[in-house]
Each structure stands twice: as C-alpha cells, then as structure tokens.
Here is the input.
Amino acid sequence: MSTYSTPVLTTQRLVLRPLTHQDAPALFAVFSDPAVVRYWSADPWTDISFAETAIARAMESYRDETDIRFAIELAETGELIGTVNLHHFFNQNNRCELGYALGSPHWGKGYATEAIAAALEHGFHAAKLNRVEADIDPRNSASAKVLEKLGFRKEGYMPQRWLVHGQYADTVNYGLLRSYWEERSAGGGAA
Here is the structure.
C-alpha cells in the first residue's frame, strides 16, 4: 500500500502544513461560518469540539499516512485561513479526491487557487497520482471557477446526490489528469 505524508509546502503568499492541536480555534472559525458550508452536506460547526475531532482525524491520517491534509496559512501573518486535502486514495489506480474550504473573509483573493495548485503539484509528482477528482454543487460557481482555472474538466452530473441542509442537491463531477496538469504547466498556466 502506498503512503502519503503531509509535507510543508510554500507558495508566494501561503504556507501549507499539517494541522496541529493549536489550530482548533481558527479551524472552528472557518467551519462554523454558514457561508463556508453552504454547499456541504454538513451543518456549520457549533462547538470547538468539532474542530478538535477534525484535527484528531487529521493526526490519525498523518500517522497512518493515508491522506494528505493541509492547513492553509498566510505566510505573512501565520493566520490559518482554510484547509485543502487529498483524500480517499485509490492506490491501485493512482487517484484520489480533492477537498478544500477557505474562510469567507479570504474569498476572492486567489488563495484557494494558489493553495490547491500547490497541493496538486505535490500530489501529481511526490505522491505519483494520475488523477484527482472533485465534486461540487453546481450552484457553487466560485468553486467551479477555481477548479476550471486549475484545469479540471466537467465529467458528469448527478441529480439529487446529497441532502444539503434539508434539501436534495445535485453534484457536478470534475476530474484532472496528470497529463492535463503537465500540459497546463508546460503552457505557462501553473499558479
């Protein structure tokens, strides 16, 4: 079985690093915001214990080397502003799923694109992935824009796949192959 360690990655404005217990208050602030989880099949966190549990799960994945989970922090201030992770690895096929969330005060500044690009670069090269998949609510146009900017392609549509805040929600499936990523990078499109 392949293993996936979570390194520290740096970009122009960000540091991607493993979560720590000290991140609980900042992580809680991100996921307790109803705007952040608007398109998720989970309610906003109501207590810091949700953050502590999420961090404990991340720590377990670090020990087992089963997922790559990053805290996203601003390089200039050290403030945790979100998370990005490569998870649900299918080792036989060299593929996984992508998940990400960014605190709403930091939307529209290119941080999500920058963080996800760094995680993908690591995934395709260090973790030897061939394919990364993401699924989003089609109403989440900002997330679609980020994925498409990074070279993800729409691959399918699944009506009423999730129950989101009491209503059934559709899913758009996206995929990114290493060959797409490398073509994009060779063409100067890397973030």
Q: What stands out?
A: The chain has a mean pLDDT of 94. The chain has one domain: 9-186. The longest strand covers residues 153-164. The first helix runs from residue 24 to 31.
